[in-house]
Specification:
By secondary structure, the chain is an alpha+beta fold. It has an 8-stranded antiparallel β-sheet, with helices on both faces. It has a 4-stranded mixed β-sheet with strand order 3-2-1-4, with helices on both faces. The chain has a 3-stranded antiparallel β-sheet with strand order 5-6-7. A hairpin with a 7-residue loop joins β12 and β13. It is elongated and about 115 Å long. The N and C termini lie far apart (73 Å).
């Protein structure tokens, strides 16, 4: 009997199913199409029999004769999966009997429904006049979604057309209200079911990224608020539909949850080698659907948002080559698609501002932008670090690049872990998503390490060896070494990253399996970090922070307060066993800069991104110079300062000359006119430029919006790092004018900066200021007050 629930059709042959994936899937699609045709034929027969001999009518076809009078006011209509010809063996048959007020419609319905029930098929049914169907659709979201796409089976086809037209007209008229309601229902479903791509036993229909979401996207498209799903989404939908079909066939049950014990049988029915391949295919399809769904709901959210007049959408620069427009980041009109750093820089700008990338922008970057070759230029590497440093806001931007195929082009080894299932209930995510989550979590720990850039990249690569035979830490270390070299890190940093990936499990495994009071335990840790000679302290800091990020990204079962405490104590004891301080020695400058310092009077030199200033030393020189750079929209990447005292002439005191050596790049757009920049710097040195007033006016004119959530700044006073000064170490998220604000705060405390080492690593500032008081001495009891004042300026 064609109506029997669970009828397998041509693909339901278990182990004897076609071995080729495409052939097996084609057989499933053919089985659904054949079943839809058989069902239509059988339902038409039931309908004809219910009406009696004189009321019989053929089913729909191009050559269908006029509907006999007895059938002119009644029609059988399919909604749901059978309307779409997608009914799987365990799916429900959803039918509506439409009529124009017939008195005998109940009897007709019974003559149709009972044979269906007798055949064992689950049936959802209703009997309505068109106006009732329209009214029910206004109040019932499920009914509305079904009646947006009804399919006429038998009887008067105009009834189906009238019902669809009425429901569709209401749907579009009330789109703002109905889509808001639909969005709320979807979010409730996602919260209850989870995200299909990352579930070991996900619901193929109801979980986020499942079949239901494609149905919802089609409903949104029917409102004209967003376009219909594209070919990639339709292909992903068809894959999940085939998996659902194979699951129903293998189990003989209507459940849509892809449980572990059925995965091998389903993989076999689909012609796939094993369950891992199946889960990877499901994850790929689900993430494609989820990504498209995110774009649809962004459009819906803009549509349902209260409208304040018809103001034209404003464009706001958010980075070099990137502009915010209508809540998304798009390419600036002058963006250079030949710049190999552009793709990552635009992505970083989006993430740092907590904004998504516009789909058209991602498409343009994927098709036309030049990507960095090996080794990457420093601008591309900095942009990658800045993207990862945005924390959770980076995840959606990374996913957009990944869906466009850009990530595997940037990092070829990513293909091996992309959508790779972990098959471990402790892990919440596929391998690739776990790596991105770990990097996003590491961004919150950037203040805990001296090299936040290495922490972020190390977190991104720590499990990159999964998918290769053997120990994933050992294999991953080799991949990390190659990747770090390809992305342009210097040899010393490459060795640090290789060591971190090789030993990323060292601290958590040692802390939970060994006695940390045993000196041999500390020796084990120190022997491992010694693989990066001279960088042991860096490696230990990175391993401690990575253990936290990795554990938290894995899931609550993998990380807790007990484990965190053990790891932190082990890291602390190992660090205590290492000799040496945490800060570099006072900066020294090259001979060219020292020659500039000996120039008579003040001197300013602008050479591309490098700005050098030599002038008689005086309080506030550093932060006023930084303020001038901020006025010209230059972001300071590095700064080195030193004060040189000229030899005494006979009968005179030696004169001190300060040398400031900046590397600065435009926040966005073209660099400033060097002559104008030099002019303003000279005016500042001559005391004829009110930097503070100009910066305040600029700040008032800039329209801003909240960016990505970042950890709070950290200010540390290091009294013993220098014999002649106190070191104030500042670690903070880099923002325009940061150096100005720190320097101004130090100046307000009556301090003078005698040397500074300023570095921006990605989006993180790692700065050290060597300061003395008015008498030229290191700080004493005022250190706590200074720290609080600098923190206040950064807050």
């Amino acid at each position: 009997m064609v109506l029997a629930q669970g009828t397998p059709g041509p693909a339901g042959r278990g182990p004897g199913a076609p071995s080729s994936g495409p052939a097996a899937r084609a057989a499933l699609a053919a089985a659904r199409a054949a079943r839809a045709t058989d069902l239509d034929r059988h339902l038409t027969g039931l309908f004809n029999a219910a009406l009696g001999p004189e009321g019989g009518v053929r089913g729909p076809s191009a050559e269908q004769p006029p509907v006999p009078a007895r059938a002119a006011d009644v029609a059988l209509v399919a909604v749901g999966s059978h309307a779409r010809r997608e009914l799987t063996p365990g799916g429900d048959l959803d039918l509506v009997l439409l009529h124009r007020g017939r008195g005998d419609v109940a009897e007709i319905a019974d003559r149709i429904w009972y044979p269906i029930w007798d055949a064992g098929l689950r049936l959802d049914h209703s009997v309505r006049i068109v106006q009732e169907a329209q009214a029910v659709a206004r109040d019932d979201m499920k009914a509305a979604l079904g009646l947006l796409t009804p399919r006429h089976i038998a009887g008067d086809p105009t009834l189906a057309d009238e019902a669809r037209a009425a429901v569709l007209a209401d749907w579009r008229t009330d789109a703002r209200k109905r889509l808001a309601e639909l969005g709320g229902l979807c979010r409730e479903r996602w919260d209850a079911q989870g995200e299909l791509a990352f579930l070991l036993e996900g619901d193929l229909k109801e979980a986020r990224g499942g079949l239901r979401d494609v149905e919802v996207m089609n409903a949104v498209a029917a409102s004209w608020v967003a376009p219909a799903p594209d070919g990639r989404v339709r292909d992903a939908h068809d894959l999940l539909l085939d998996v659902r079909h194979a699951l129903h066939t293998a189990t003989g049950r209507p459940s849509d949850r892809l449980v572990l014990q059925e995965q091998e049988a389903v993989a076999t029915a689909l012609g796939m080698p094993d369950a891992d391949v199946l889960l990877r295919a499901v994850a790929t399809a689900a993430r494609t659907i989820t990504h498209a769904d995110d774009q649809v709901w962004r459009r819906v959210d803009r549509f349902v948002r209260p409208r304040n007049g018809r103001a034209r959408a404003r464009r706001r620069p958010v980075g070099d080559g990137a502009v915010e427009q209508d809540g998304e980041v798009v390419l600036a009109r002058n963006a250079d698609l030949g710049d190999p750093a552009l793709t990552l820089r635009v992505a970083a700008s989006a993430a740092q501002n907590g904004l998504p990338l516009a789909p058209a922008t991602v498409d343009t970057l994927a098709r036309r932008a030049v990507l960095p070759g090996a080794p990457w230029p420093s601008a591309a590497r900095d942009a990658l670090v800045s993207l990862l440093g945005a924390g959770p806001a980076a995840i959606g931007v990374w996913e957009a690049l990944d869906q466009a195929g850009l990530i595997v082009r940037l990092l070829p080894d990513w293909e091996r872990v992309r959508n790779r299932p972990q098959r471990n209930p402790v892990h919440r995510f596929t391998v690739d998503r776990h790596l991105v989550e770990a990097a996003a979590g590491a961004a919150a720990l950037a203040r805990e390490v001296a090299r936040p850039d290495l922490l972020l990249v190390g977190a991104l690569l720590h499990d990159i060896g999964k998918g290769l035979p053997g120990d994933h830490s050992v294999r991953g270390a080799a991949v990390a070494r190659e990747t770090a070299a390809r992305t342009g890190f210097p040899a010393g940093d490459v060795k640090v990253l290789e060591t971190v990936v090789r030993h990323h499990l060292l601290l958590p495994e040692t802390a939970t399996r060994r006695d940390i009071d045993d000196p041999k335990t500390i020796e084990t840790v120190l022997d491992a970090v010694a693989e990066a000679p001279g960088r042991e302290r860096d490696v230990l800091e990175l391993l401690a922070a990575l253990a936290v990020a990795d554990g938290q990204a894995t899931g609550p079962a993998a990380w807790g307060s007990w484990k965190a405490g053990l790891v932190a104590e082990l890291a602390r004891r190992a660090l205590m066993s290492l000799a040496g301080g945490t800060l570099p020695p006072a900066p020294s400058l090259g001979p060219d800069t020292l020659a500039l310092a000996r120039h008579d009077g003040a001197a300013v030199r602008v050479q591309g991104a490098r700005i050098m200033i030599a002038a008689p030393d005086r309080p506030g020189l550093l932060w006023r110079a930084a303020g001038v750079l901020a006025l010209h929209r230059l972001a300071v990447r590095t700064a080195r300062t030193v004060s040189e005292t000229a030899p005494k002439a006979a009968g005179t005191e030696g004169t001190a000359t300060a040398v400031l050596d900046f590397t600065a790049v435009p926040e966005f757009g073209d660099p400033p006119d060097p002559a104008a920049l030099e002019s303003d710097l000279r005016r500042m040195l001559a005391g004829r430029l009110n930097v503070a007033d100009r910066l305040e006016r600029r700040a008032r004119s800039v329209r801003t919006r909240p960016g990505a959530a970042v950890p709070p700044p950290r200010v540390t006073i290091v009294p013993d790092a220098s014999e002649s000064a106190t070191v104030v170490e500042v670690r903070a998220h880099d923002v325009p004018g940061l150096l100005w604000r720190v320097g101004q705060a130090l100046g307000e405390c009556g301090l003078q900066v005698i040397a500074a080492r300023v570095d921006t690593l990605g989006a993180e500032a790692v700065d050290a200021f060597y300061v003395v008081d008015a008498e030229g001495r290191p700080l004493g009891e005022s250190a706590a007050t200074v720290r609080a004042h600098v923190l206040g300026a950064l807050g």
